[in-house]
Structure formats: C-alpha cells, structure tokens
Amino acid sequence: MLLSWDALIEEIENCRACPLCREIHRKVVGQGDIHAELMFIGEGPGADEDLQGVAFVGAAGQLLTKMIAAIGMTRDEVYICNVVKCRPPHNRTPEKEEAEACMTFLRQQFLLVHPKIIVLLGSTAAKAVLGDQIRITRDRGKWVEKKGFFFMPTYHPAALLRDPAKKREAWEDLQQVASKLAEVRHSAPEGSPGSPHS
Ligand code: URA
Q1: 42 C-alpha to center of ligand 1: Å?
Q2: Which domains does the chain possess?
Q3: d(CA 107, CA 104)
Q4: 12-16, 141-145, 186-190: lowest mean pLDDT where?
C-alpha cells in the first residue's frame, strides 16, 4: 500500500521495529525534492545528522553536496535519504536485520519520489537495494537497470574522505549519472514530467 508522505513520516517517527531507535536524538527521514528525477541513498545518519534530523549534513554530507554540484545540481533538486533512519551507535554499519526492518520505509520513499536514477552510496545501500552479491569495488560505475529505473552503485562520500584516491572513479561515476539524466530527460515523452516541453 502506498502511504502519503505525512503517513510515512508518522510511521517512521513511531517506528520501534529494531533497537536503533533507543539511543538516538532524532530520526532522519530524508530531504530534497519529493518529485526528484535523481535520488541518493546512503547508509544511515551520523552524529551531525542525528542531532539535526537532516541527512548528509556532516563532513561526508558536505562532500556529497560537492558531488551533486559536480553534475550541475543542488541538494534541493535531488532527493537524499538513507537505508536506516536511526543512527547506529558509534556510526557502525547497520546490521542486516536493522536494514531489513527499515526497508519498508525506503521502498515507500522510492515509490513516492519515483526517481528515474538512483545513486547508491556505498556497500550498505548497494546491497540493501540490489542484493548481497554486490561488491562496491567491483560493481561501482556499472548501471543496473530494473523495471526502467537506473541504479548506479558508487563509493560512499565517507570512503572518499578516508581514501581520496577513490575520488577519480567516483567522479567518473557521477559523469555517467549526468549523461544518463540528460538521456532520460531527452527520451521523456513530450508533455510528461521530465520532458523539456512539460
Ligand atoms: N552517512 C550516511 O550514510 N548518511 C548520512 O546521512 C550521513 C553520513
């Protein structure tokens, strides 16, 4: 069943499906254009996000903002969210059960935003969405198309901060995203959302 945004936000706020909610300050639902063509999915809130209730506002978030700018867009023009909506203690990777408990919310966000292109930031997001077989170092930069949606696994900005040598590959992945965006906009039927004449 497709929820309204208000109902979804209420369900997330009230969720007690896994232990992560016990130690948090705020849930982090996601931000940006709820009709965006481009969606970014990260892993889960860190300390700054947990305090502010906003996704990707810490150091990794600032780099993500630059990555979005590198394809000529702003944070307000895309939708940004995470696999888990509660901060895992000490920023550990969410357990599989925690990610699974939160997937129903990510699915609803995906259905509501209905993006054309989804950038999966890092292993947790790529595995949660595309399956456990995904290896980010092997599979980044390769499109996965499912039911007309285009998924691009790439490095998480926190990984780029830890290892700046990975930035070149991440930038190449983003160029592919920019090209695909131009392609899907171009092929949108006239008058439809995304068409230059709508
Ligand atoms: N890392 C993430 O995966 N998500 C955030 O919101 C912040 C840091």
Answers
A1: 5
A2: 5-185 (3.40.470.10)
A3: 5
A4: 186-190
